[in-house]
Each structure stands twice: as C-alpha cells, then as structure tokens.
Input
Amino acid sequence: MSKDNIVIREIRPEDNPQIEATIKACFPEFNIPLKGTAYEDAETPFMYESYQGDREVYYVIANAKEVFGGAGIKQLKDFDGNVCELQKMYFSPKVRGKGLGKQMFQKCLDAAKAFGYELCYLESASQLKAAIHIYEEFGFEHLEQPLGNTGHYSCGVWMTKQL
Output
C-alpha cells in the first residue's frame, strides 16, 4: 500500500470500531498478554469518547475508507505532576515500515508540548522491539519501574522524555 491519500488526523466517532480492531489485532500478532494491557481497557472500544477532555488528543492514520492505526496523549493517571502518557500506539501491518509511526509519534509529542506537559511517559511490551527502538531514537530513556496507575501490569517497558 502506498502512502497516497493516507493522513494523520484527530479521531472521529465513526473510527471507534476500526481503531479498536486494529489495536486488538496487534496483541496475538506479537504474542502480548491480553490481561493487564490496552486489550482489555474499558476505553478501547470508545476511543473517540475517551479523548475529549482538556489536554488530550487521539490521532488516527487513515484514508477515506480505513483506519490503519493511532496514538494519543493524555494526562498520566493517578500521578501528581505535569506528566502526560503516550497511549495506545498501534498500527496495522498495512502501514508499518513507511515512516508513519515516526510521523505519528512526532505529532503526539508536539501535541504534548502544546498542551504544556513537562514530561512524557509511555509503557510498552518488550515484544514491540521496533516501537521501542523508535522511542529510544526520539530520546526516551528507560525507567526501572512504572509511573502512575495505568492498570497495564503486563507491560514491562517504561520510558520517559523531558518535553
């Protein structure tokens, strides 16, 4: 698939079923646990509604017919401080390896800065080696333990970056 007609835009209500399916499809593909991950989050079926507060946004990669992935920024849950979390960054195999992940990641970091956050936090699974490599390229540093209370106890990779 070419990058023609593919855009990164804010999520719309009608995107919910496709982004939920895209997120959930990544778990068996990469052998990531379903429990203690975004797979079972209550907000995963309702991504549009879950990112309508102040200082939060969710972007999707899409063309006119299909949603191929997404990522978002939101205040880190149950954590004191001006810290956001990069959330639910998952992509269909159809768009991987085309540089769109890096574009999405940069768009999210730009949004976090625009919202005035000082630190960006993310959690990942060790199986997602390509994603972790991108995070490291962007200057994220590994932590020894998680921050906040995301409920993602099966994620074993925690990273932060000063914005």
Q: What stands out?
A: DSSP finds four helices and seven strands in the chain.
